[in-house]
Amino acid sequence: MEQPFRVCIFCIRTFIHRVLEPPDDVKKLFQDYSQNGIMSMDDLLNFLSKVQGQNNAKEDDAEAIFNTLKHLNIFPRKGLNLEAFYRYLLGDLNTPLSPCVHQDMTAPLAHYFMYTGHNSYLSGNQLSSESSVRPIKKALQNGVRVIELDLWPARNNDVVVRHGRTLTTSVKLLRCLRAIKEFAFEVSEYPVVITFEDHLTADLQDKVAEMVTKTFGDMLYRPETDELEKLSPESLKKKILISTKPPREYLETQDSNSPHKSEKSSEEQGGDEKLRSSTINLFSCSSMCFTKQDQIDEGEQVQGEDEEMTIPKYRDLIAIPSGKPKGGLEEWLRIDEKDVRRLSLSEQELEKATRTHGKDIVRITKNNLLRVYPKGTRLDSSNYDPFVGWKHGAQMVAFNMQGYGRPLWIMQGMFRANGGCGYVKKPDFLLREKDDFDPSVSSPVYKILKVKIYSGEGWHLDFRHTHFDPYSPPDFLVKVGIVGVDACETSRTQVVKNSWLPEWNKEFKFEVAAPELSVLGIEVSDDDKYGSPDFAGQTYLPISELRTGIRAVPLHDRRGVRYKSARLLMRFDLKDSPECSE
Fold first, then answer.
1. Catalytic residue among 111, 118, 199, 556, which?
2. Where does the C2 domain start and stop, copy by copy (predicted)?
């Protein structure tokens, strides 16, 4: 097929849009696993078992593959020819990850990483964007299991959700709750946790309790005893849990602001002044920030006796109590491990704590839930390195899902594991009872991952033919690398000039120290010798869950939305390191 590009008024360049041929490896495999140019159902099962590593493949699996190809003219009645076999390899049934939940889901909640959002109601930046139910719906449809709502009083004795003391708009709490109810279990039946950061008076807390109870009904999990350490994702299927701090702290704060009380502490007052300054100068200086936003977002100071004073109606909601014990980090690390609760640290606080108390944090997170949230200076809804939290056992590494960028791509890749259900089992070394894992010590190489990038297709269906270059087809290249706890290594293919159907046939080898806490990053770009490369797709995949063999790897846009057609044909081989097998 010819594709014209207008260079000027009088000149048109024409390029031939060729057909993508199967790579030599595919031709060789088809020859080895077919008879007289036809691959029968038994031959296909043999291929799935020996090449694709699907040892449990059954006749139903092979039949499903046959059924997806029967509508094509290239499908012979007796089996697959080479072209039909190649279309299967590039099809949606040949994904690099299992689409099913396969991990043990009966362990306590603290034994899982949970897909967690921060300020889930914001549609853009942290200072002036719209608060809406749309980001909440989108997050749930993407598999997020922990939704954060900031509750504030409004006129007419109502409760709204907004980012306090900023220019962001507000949205009614009831609308948010209804959206959560509607979309909570659309893509995953495992529990949704709603974290409330409330700034409410006692009467409004009672109103919230009534809203939540009436909205969710039987979907709401209401604890009768302190049994959090026994609750598992499996036992909480299709349940919604509330996590918040008891209300006494808010009442104390209100008293401290009363005219009859002394003025705010200098630290709190300084935070408010910097926040107001940031709000006023938002549009005059994009880098302006308020340094005490962490206190505004997460002002959680809770002691055990506070829970006894919780308002009864509100107390009934709290399935996962949250807070920071008074006394700083040292006191936090001495909490009773059996008194299970959710603890919160900013990314800065966590990084500081890990320098001297890494093993203690791992020990605490064996039973308690740790939530890490972005620092307040991330006004653009950017994110941070999630591996710092994960390697210390933090279950809730909260991200701004509104933005995009490599940290968010890593987060999305991590939670493509386990069927994309939003819960990923923590590796055994973070859960050992007798020997606490030391995150500061580098892990030995456990696995060798071989990756071969054959070819790509589909961009001409997802993009305008002049999207990458107005005068010629794109010049694609692929960057591939390991990102993880003890690894950050990147390689790249050669540039394929002027082709919508690039062929690279390039193999790479990576050493992987902790495959359970590592992802394979794949980024495609159009090389531009006159400027920055143009983005052409990305995907990040959890290494420990990669299916071996030749796989079709779908690509996603900058925000993590999957393209309809753009994909790569790749081969994966993950084996034990020779050092570990000795």
1. 118
2. 427-557
560 alpha carbon, distance to own chain's centre: 9
Q: What region does 68 belong to: left with phi over 0, alpha with psi -120 to 50, or beta?
A: alpha
Q: What share of the chain is helix, strand, coil (3-state, %, to 5)?
A: 30, 25, 45
Pair of tokens at residue 360: 């203690």
Both tokens assigned to 445: 């190489």
Maximum CA pair distance of the chain?
Answer: 93
Q: Which pTM value belongs to this model?
A: 0.87
Crossing angle between the packed helical segments 202-216 and 173-183, to the nearest 10 degrees: 30
CA–CA distance, 487 with 377 (Å, rounded to integer): 27
Q: What is the pLDDT of residues 508-563, one digit of tens each?
A: 999 999 999 999 999 999 998 888 999 999 999 999 999 999 999 999 999 999 99
Residues 6+ apart with CB under 8 A from 440: 354, 358
Q: Beta-strand (E) ranges in 411-533? A: 423-425, 447-457, 476-484, 487-492, 503-512, 518-526
111 is a catalytic site residue:
no
Residue 489 CA to residue 518 CA, distance in Å, equals 11
Strand partners, 322: 342
Q: How far apart are CA 47 and CA 54, in angstroms?
A: 9
Tell me, yes or no, if 163 is annotated catalytic: yes
The label of the residue with tokens 């063999």 reads 549
* Nearest Cα to Cα of residue 17 among 511, 372, 459, 542: 459
Question: Of the candidates 42, 18, 20, 38, which has an alpha carbon nearest to the alpha carbon of residue 30?
Answer: 38
Name the least confident of 45-49, 87-91, 366-370, 436-440.
436-440
